[in-house]
Each structure stands twice: as C-alpha cells, then as structure tokens.
Write a structure and sequence with these properties.
The chain is mainly alpha-helical and 118 residues long. Helices cover 83% and strands 0% of the residues. It is built from 4 helices and no strands. InterPro entries: UPF0344.
C-alpha cells in the first residue's frame, strides 16, 4: 500500500503543476479536465494514506503530524487552483504549500515506512 501512496502523491503533484500551467496558458477546458483528474488522485492519496497509517504498529506523534500535513498540502493544492480560477491572490498559499511539502517530504523519508526503508 505504501507504493500506491507514494505513486499517488507523485502523480498528484505532477497533475497539480500541469493544471497550474494549463491555467496560466489560458487553456480552460484542459485545465478543468486535469483538475478533475487531480481530485480523483486526492481521494486515492487520502485512502492510501489512512490505510498506511492504520497499518503502523506503533502510532506516534510524527505519523499524526505527517498525516495532518498531508491533508493540509492537499487542501492547499485545491485552494491554489480554485483561487487561480477565480482570479484571486495565491501568494500566501504558495508559501504554505512549500512549507507543507517540505514537512511531508522530511517526515516521509524519516519515518520507518518512508522511502529509505522500503
């Protein structure tokens, strides 16, 4: 299940940046399609993340922080795309996204189920 979770995250990030660049290029219909596919990946990420979290034998605060940071990251990705579509400012959300992404990646590599321990 950890491989599904990591793959979903990677594809989710690729789709997020693809949607961002499609919006900036003015392609409304392709942006909408990629954004909807990205929303399906949000669901995959959350379901696989909860499954991985439930499979952990010793649940400590780091896992909970990583899970909450992952949810925060998904929320930020969605808020950035929706606010872009509405023409609103997204600078603060980009700063939060970078912080959340760094936190999730650092905890993902550090924790026993992370990339370095597969």
């Amino acid at each position: 299940m950890i491989h599904l979770h990591i793959t979903s995250w990677i594809l989710g990030l690729v789709l997020f940046f693809a949607a961002y660049y499609l919006h900036n290029s003015g392609s409304a219909k392709p942006f909408k399609i990629v954004h909807m596919i990205l929303r399906v990946f949000y669901i995959l990420i959350i379901i696989s993340g909860v499954t991985v979290l439930l499979s952990v034998s010793v649940l400590n605060a780091e896992y909970i922080i990583k899970g909450l940071s992952g949810l925060w990251l998904i929320a930020l990705m969605e808020m950035i795309l929706v606010r872009l579509k509405k023409g609103k400012n997204v600078r603060g959300f980009w700063i939060q996204l970078i912080i959340a992404l760094v936190l999730v990646l650092l905890l993902g590599w550090r924790l026993p189920l992370g990339v370095l321990h597969m």
